[in-house]
Amino acid sequence: MTRSIRPDAVLVQAVIAGALSFAHLHDLAAAAGQTGWKAWAYPVSVDLLLVAAWRRLRNDGPSRLAWCWFIVALFASLGANVATAGFLDLEHPPALLRLGVAGWPAVAFLGGTLLAHAPKSAEDRVPDPPAPATPVTEPVTETEPEAEPVSAVDDTPALPAAEPAPAAAAPAVPVPAALVDHARKVADDHRARTGSPIDTDTLRARLGVPPQLAHAIAAQLA
Q1: What is the separation, in whole angstroms, between the first and last Cα of the chain?
Q2: Is the dihedral of CA 24, 28, 31, 36 positive or negative?
Q3: Looking at residue 67, what is its pLDDT?
Q4: Do 50 and 69 contact (CB within 8 A), yes or no?
């Protein structure tokens, strides 16, 4: 499976800018008296220091050390680009330029060593702006009122015992006079046949009336 390679405008621009900066640094080093492979080593040293400082900023966060060496490397690269644009006579370079180019290897070595091996510290990091303090609210706890001590002795006066309610008298059942006369005939007939008075159950069965009505009739026949 072949992957199509599409040109990236940003990548192309970065390659062109890096090549031009690399060439300017080489020309400046060569004009300052660094010949052969030395002139080619200067742009490599400047670009490596710039990349190392940017990597420290990206991985470990902002710090004074990383920003310092990033600006130093950027100034060296930008200074070479400006110097080769005709502002300096590269045929007769000034002594200050020769001094800077000659001392650059020591400066680049010191910067690369510090960026690679210097530990992060709280003082070296750029302090972040303090976050706004949020008020801390303490939880409000409701205190329950203390319960009054309960006395072991019950001082409540005893209530009088309730008197039993009188039994309700059974309501009187009205008995028709005709029914009483009929019952009397039934009772007389029972006495004539058996020789004993008729009881309430027999009277109720003969008349076919409810028990209460049979008791009321028997009371009138007594």
Answers
A1: 128
A2: negative
A3: 92
A4: no
